[in-house]
Amino acid sequence: MLIKYQSLFIMLWFFSNGVKAQDSLALLNQKKEYSAGTKISLTFQNNSEGSFQLFCSNSYGSTVIYGVKDKNKLLFKIPEFISNKIGVVNWKILGITNNISGQFNISAVQEPNSLETYIGPPTIEAGGTDYAMLVVIPTDKLDNPIQNDSKVDVKQLFLKSKKTQSITTKNLIAHLNIFSPLKTGRIVVSTESYNLNSKEYDVNILPAIGNDFKIFQKRNHEYADGNQITTFFTSIIRDKNNNIVSDGTFVDFFISNNEGNILKTAGTTINGIAKASIIHPDCESTWKIKAYINGISESDSIVITYKKVIKNIPITFSKDNRTIIIGPLQSFMEQMIPDGLQVKLSILNNGIQETEIIEQSKDGFTTFKLNSNIYKTGNYDIEITTACTTKTYKSIKLW
User: Fold this and answer.
1) CA separation, residue 131 to residues 121, 187, 249, 351 (Å)
2) DSSP H stretches of helix in 289-328
3) Fewer beta carbons below 10 Å: N end or C end of the chain?
4) In angstroms, rounded to a whole number, what is the distance separating the alpha carbons of residues 49 and 169?
5) Distance separating alpha carbons of residues 302 and 287, to the nearest angstrom
6) CA pair distance 80, 66, nearest whole angstrom
7) Which of 238, 253, 331 is CA-nearest to residue 292?
8) How far apart are CA 77 and CA 67, in angstroms?
9) Sheet order of strands, 41-45 included
10) Reduced 3-state DSSP string for 232-271
């Protein structure tokens, strides 16, 4: 029975002393606001012999701090990785049943050390509807964004026009939409906050999409010789604000001939003008040309005509008719036709084509030799075609 009462006495004594130890902790410094980078300590009145820990957390993380006892005071030093960052810090004493906790706030030093500036996209379209966004984050020497409602001056230079616009930080950043002017060029942008200036940034203002345009043609002559070049070119292509479209804008030229075929050539713009070339046809033909910037704009249509260049085809047969010489082939001024004109020879037997041979002219002549091992002795119809002119010889006997 005595042992039982002794145990009960010890438990009551321990419980009584524990409550006193908890009640004996009292926060001495009640400061709630600190500047980032300052040394922060929490000091408690402590009359007990127990050891205590402080749980401390902010948006960057959490840690447990061991207290340092100095006579009847208990000191907790907040580590720098917490005291250097802005935001709310929550703390709580561990190891006791009573809730001893609190919080304090750390604010940025209102002296920016750098201006984190971002701007994009780097190119926008002229016309006043497209824009680039500028984002500025003034930060102190510890890389903390400075307080809300801090003033930031945005300076812009476009052509010879200069302007300054003031904005303020909100939710730790300042931002501004920079809308495009009507003309092309480059906007130079810089920012300033509390006498601290950023470096220079720029936004390029490019032309909008091109409007409809006109096309033209240029050629040395109008004959279908299969040799000369016809050049198509556009008027100066401009956007809705009269800006010349960007260099490198792709333009397709579609050509419809009188046989229903479609030819195509293409070019890219330089100083708003696109050029493309195509070789003259071999046959007399009429072309209808129309140009497009794919999915954006189109030109008017133009029509050009190519005249027949060869009216007569001189043909000479050898004695056995197996060597056929075509020429001299003469052009529109009776000069020799340029090298490379296509000449086609077709051999028909009883109205059925047996073979077709294609050669190119050189020095105004083309020669065909019919091998006796391939073409047996007999009568054949022979057709010779060049520059869309055809000559037919019936019942030519090959010996």
Assistant:
1) 8, 11, 22, 72
2) none
3) N
4) 50
5) 8
6) 15
7) 253
8) 8
9) 26-27, 41-45, 73-77, 68-70
10) EEECCCEECCCCECCCCCEEEEEEEECCCCEEEEEEEEEC
Is the pLDDT confidence value at 228 over 60?
A: yes
What is the predicted pLDDT for the residue at 225?
Answer: 85
One-letter amino acid of 178: I
d(CA 106, CA 101): 17
298-308: average pLDDT: 95
CA 31/CA 41 separation, integer angstroms? 10
| Nearest alpha-carbon partner for 254 in 268, 243, 244, 264 | 264
Mean pLDDT of 80-87: 93
Count of Cβ atoms closer than 10 Å to residue 311 Cβ: 9
Of 145, 153, 134, the closest CA to residue 191 belongs to 153
> Taking Cα atoms as reference points, which of 209, 53, 201, 60 lies closest to residue 120?
201
Residue environment code for 356-368, b if the CB has 16+ CB neighbours within 10 A, otherwise e: eeebebeebbbeb
Q: How far apart are CA 348 and CA 392, in angstroms?
A: 10
Q: Which of 19-33, 219-233, 303-317 bottoms out in mean pLDDT, i.e. has the lowest?
A: 19-33
On whether the CB atoms of residues 154 and 117 are closer than 8 A, the answer is no
Enumerate the H helices of the chain as residue ranges. Answer: 2-23, 80-83
- Would the pLDDT of 19 be above 70? no
Q: Is 170 helix (H, G, I), strand (E, B) or coil?
A: strand
Kindly list the distances between the CA atom of residue 115 and the CA atoms of 112, 171, 195, 198, 363, in Å, as whole numbers in the listed order. Answer: 7, 16, 11, 6, 75
